[in-house]
Design a protein that fits this description.
The chain is α+β, with helices and mostly antiparallel strands. Helix content is 27%, strand content 22%. The protein is built from 3 helices and 12 strands, in the order H-E-E-E-E-E-E-E-E-E-E-E-E-H-H. The strands form 2 sheets. Strands 1, 2, 3, 4, 9, 10, 11 and 12 form an 8-stranded antiparallel sheet that branches. A 4-stranded antiparallel sheet has the order 7-6-5-8, with no helix packed on it. A hairpin with a 3-residue loop joins strand 11 and strand 12.
């Protein structure tokens, strides 16, 4: 009775089963991650430099598809408003409907309902002083609207530019098509949470499932590569054994 548990190709049946299983699971994770990501996220290219240094012009970003009602203060959103142009634009939500947003306090900060907001992503202006806006303003945002600002407050054309229009520069929540979650090129990963808005009523948004998707795709890729490499590696190792050793092994097992 032969106890040989090796296949004709020279590697164990158990190894073949496990390598096939690894490839199968890897394909599920890899393809599932991409399909899930395509359902949840929409890619965009940043059209201007108004969001620097957070988002550079030309950056490739992923925006989670959300309803405008889910938007909170501090979110970086993609929106389309005919009054602002026909192309999707990217700005940060500084205030939501019912808020009174003003600038600036004596330390140069934005205030929302009288509460100063720390914005570490802002760049210093002329003279090295960081201010939330080069122009003073105070606006009460209409219900179901959003007041939007670029992170480069010195060059951005945002709600401050449209304050003479209906809504005092704010846009309806319904214009939002996505919330920016991550920068994929250049690879910066997840956006930093807007902690300066965290103490305001409603808090800040939680990141989308970008990390889970990235982990699934990465793990799937690794499993596919490992599973696919098992057969060739096992055969190569078997061929390197001396013929005498292989014969002796077979005779011993089949004795």
């Amino acid at each position: 009775m032969s106890g040989n548990i090796r296949t004709k190709g020279g590697h164990g049946r158990l190894g073949s089963v496990l390598s096939g299983l690894a490839v199968a699971v890897g394909c599920v994770l890899f393809l599932g991650g991409f399909v899930w990501g395509a359902v949840l996220y929409q890619p965009y290219t940043v059209p201007t430099d108004s969001m620097t240094p957070t988002l550079d012009v030309g950056s490739k970003i992923l925006a989670e598809r959300i309803d405008g009602d889910e938007v909170r203060r501090g979110d970086v959103v993609v929106f389309t408003d005919p009054l602002w142009g026909s192309s999707p634009m990217v700005k940060r939500v500084a205030a939501v409907g019912g808020d009174t947003v003003a600038c600036c306090d004596r330390d140069g900060r934005l205030t929302v309902n009288g509460t100063p907001v720390e914005e570490p992503y802002l760049r210093p202006g002329p003279g090295g002083r960081t201010v939330a806006s080069g122009q003073d303003f105070s606006v009460t945002v209409p219900r179901d609207n959003l007041f939007l600002l670029g992170d480069d407050r010195h060059t951005s054309l945002d709600s401050r530019t449209h304050m003479e229009e209906a809504g005092q520069g704010s846009v309806p929540r319904s214009t939002v098509v996505g919330r920016v979650d991550a920068v994929v090129w250049p690879a910066k990963g997840l956006l930093a949470p807007p902690e300066g808005f965290a103490d305001l009523p409603g808090g800040i948004s939680q990141p989308g499932p970008f990390k889970a998707l990235f982990t699934a795709i990465t793990a799937g890729t690794a499993l596919i590569l490992v599973g696919a490499a098992y057969g060739p590696v096992a055969r190569r190792l078997t061929r390197r054994r001396p013929d005498g050793q292989r014969r002796g092994t077979r005779e011993k097992v089949g004795a």
